[in-house]
Design goal:
Helices cover 36% and strands 18% of the residues. The chain is an alpha+beta fold.
């Protein structure tokens, strides 16, 4: 793996600096207990009113993975097809206790995604979240009612050989940099 090394000015656990989103997946199976632990970690995320608006639709079988791949953009299909697990992260748009709009549903689902990716990394897996998918087709194929929305599709598995990617994707198979802390915070 070549690319940018990440450094922190402050005492941040290296765990946060080391996780990244590769596209080179091995087709090795994900252990059942690991998969369930990764999903359980996500389910422990905090949420507004403890609504827990997230739902995780897991594609593990060849037929279900083919279905999920069909709603990804072609640019994501070419590499995500090698991931042994694809997960649709879905969120409920209204609160269960009063049926009013939950404008924090995406924020909460994103928090659950953060927990998912960090637990996966802790267990030696890689994840790559994708926004490049056909939302209407995904919602229809997952039989979602209008009260639910697909937020992202996540590829999960072991890191594979980057040389199996296209030349163009191999060039992008690097650890991404981050903006400086000063660019994203305001303390007064």
């Amino acid at each position: 793996m070549s690319g940018t090394e990440r450094f922190s000015k402050y005492n941040v656990d290296s765990f946060f600096l080391e996780r990244w989103s590769p596209r080179a997946f091995s087709n090795n199976a994900v252990d059942d207990n690991d998969l369930l632990a990764i999903l359980e970690a996500a389910h422990w995320a905090p949420s507004c009113f403890n609504e827990q608006p997230w739902r995780f639709y897991v594609a593990r079988s060849d037929s279900k993975r083919a279905q999920f791949l069909s709603f990804l953009t072609e640019s994501n299909q070419v590499w995500a097809k090698n991931a042994p697990i694809l997960i649709a992260i879905v969120s409920k748009l209204t609160f269960s206790h009063n049926n009013k709009p939950n404008r924090w549903n995406g924020f909460d689902a994103g928090t659950a995604w953060g927990y998912l990716t960090m637990e996966a990394y802790k267990r030696g897996y890689i994840t790559h979240a994708m926004g490049g998918f056909k939302k209407d087709i995904a919602a229809r194929e997952l039989h979602l009612t209008e009260d639910y929305q697909v937020q992202a599709i996540v590829a999960l598995g072991k890191h594979g050989d980057p040389s199996l990617l296209s030349t163009d994707l191999q060039k992008r198979e690097i650890i991404s940099s981050r903006k400086t802390l000063e660019e994203v915070i305001s303390i007064e």
